[in-house]
Design goal:
The protein is an alpha+beta fold. The strands form two sheets. Strands 4, 5, 6, 7, 8 and 10 form a six-stranded mixed β-sheet that branches. A four-stranded antiparallel β-sheet has the order 2-1-3-9. Strand 5 and strand 6 form a beta hairpin. Helix 7 runs antiparallel to helix 8, helix 7 packs parallel to helix 9 and helix 8 packs across helix 10. The longest helix is centred in the C-terminal third of the chain and has 16 residues. It is elongated and about 65 Å long.
Length: about 280
């Protein structure tokens, strides 16, 4: 039994769906029977599901926790040629924040809650408990791998896995293509519900606003999307308790306008974030 197969069977026994990766760390090609999804088992790879092919076809959708599948003859032949073991994070109930370099790791340490980390060739994987859409290049050097994606298995990592935070979910949200314009500028607190604020100290909110300002000012590409995602993250955390003030929104708008955004775009992005969150 190859080392990769042994690892795969151990993971499958822990209900982590696995698949082999060939040279180049990519999935094995579909067999002739499944070429172009002719088998009909996983049309366009939109959903995982069985097909009659016994081999590891269909990339991430082939990932399995069934030892009889993982250790079957066609899979055994693939494991002998495999260069790595991969797994389907969404199938395991996880989301992986793939940090590709030192700058991305530094950003995560400042902006995301601590969780289980796994060293990679060039950076780290941060694992969170929860699933979400997989999205590449959510910011420089950062990808998210969860549903409909695979990640290399590089060991169990260190630290305690924590719940998937709103700050990570917000990274995958794309700004609406048709922006709904606000009828007037934002001049009132975002929440203003009259309820007691659940945040323990004003410093917690101030630190969050400072992190949001830094996220905007450090954006080197996709500034529009970064501004929207940042507004969404701030509102998802602080928008319902009434603790945001005009001074806080002014700080965020100032940071965005410092990156070339117009006041109108800031207002529209803020309004769309509120609409999305039902505020």
């Amino acid at each position: 039994m190859s080392e990769h197969l042994r690892t795969a069977l151990e993971l499958a026994a822990s209900q982590i769906p696995v698949l082999p990766l060939r040279a180049g760390k990519v999935p094995f090609r579909n067999c002739a029977r499944c070429a172009n999804n002719a088998c009909g088992g996983r049309p366009n790879m939109k959903t995982p599901g069985p097909c009659s092919c016994p081999g590891p076809c269909h990339a991430w959708a082939a990932a399995s926790t069934d030892p009889h599948v993982v250790g079957s003859g066609p899979w055994r032949r693939a494991w002998r040629q495999a260069e790595a073991v991969a797994y389907h994070p969404g199938g395991a109930g996880w989301a992986v924040v793939d940090l590709d370099n030192a700058d991305a790791i530094a950003w995560a340490r400042e902006n995301l809650p601590a969780t289980r980390t796994v060293p990679t060739t060039r950076g780290q994987h941060w694992l969170y408990l929860g699933t979400m859409p997989s999205t590449n290049a959510v910011r420089p050097g950062v990808d998210i791998k969860s549903t409909m994606a695979y990640a290399r298995w590089l060991g169990p990592g260190t630290g305690t896995i924590t719940g998937l935070p709103d700050a990570v979910r917000a990274l995958a949200v794309k700004e609406p293509s048709a922006v709904r314009s606000a009828s007037q500028a934002v001049t009132m607190p975002a929440g203003a519900t009259g309820r007691q604020c659940p945040h323990r100290t004003p410093a917690y909110l101030d630190r969050g606003i400072a992190m949001a300002e830094r996220r905007i000012t450090e954006a080197s590409t996709a500034v529009h999307a970064t501004v929207y995602r940042t507004f969404l993250a701030v509102l998802s955390t602080h928008g319902r308790c009434g603790c945001l003030t005009e001074a806080h929104t002014a700080r965020l708008f100032t940071a965005a306008q410092g990156k070339g955004e117009t006041a109108r775009h800031c207002t529209d992005a803020w309004t769309n974030a509120r609409i999305r969150l039902g505020l």
